[in-house]
Amino acid sequence: MKTDIAITQKTPQGEIPMQMETVIVYPDHLHAKMSSPNGTVNIVGTPQAAFVALPNGQVQAFPERRKADLLEQIKRDPLFIASHWKDADVFFRAGGTEKIGEVETRIVDVNSEGVAIRWFVDPQSDHIVKETYATLSQTGPALGETYLDNWKPIAGLTLPLLRRNKQNGEDSSTAEYKNLEINPSVDPKLFEKPAENSPAQH
Q1: What's the predicted TM-score (pTM) here?
Q2: Does 108 fall in a domain?
Q3: In a domain, 198, yes or no
Q4: Do the domain assignments include residue 19?
């Protein structure tokens, strides 16, 4: 899946707008190219390696826990879960309700190949209103919340084109999907680690 996303990242210095292009090859390859005021950042996650390539040419490997969190994002993707719901290692358990706004949602706990996520589903539309999950923030483990909105039919699927994210109850970012392509052609080199530029000599 290839997406073009307008990101608004909330930071202590204020909101930072970014454009992000992601390519996901299920179940375990992710490439994200982010264009920000400071330059272009590339993030890659695969079972073999996870790293960030910075605008200055430096390449930094992710610690193992952050690599795991990056790959878990793919397993939490509703599209991945929907396409694997019959698998032996994907489980669903319904239980309880919670009111979100005017909607009395039904709670569904999902375990997707060892990755836990909780869905809050609108029983009228069958859309996921909110999902909660364990994640990593800049300062350590955090409770992630994503509110999914603006569901639209695309390529035979109905997908949320707006996601509002929180970490530990605080707004962290919004993501508005501008374009989404299913089964695009993908260059395998997207997931290769680039050669690191040497620091300039002074």
Answers
A1: 0.88
A2: yes
A3: no
A4: yes
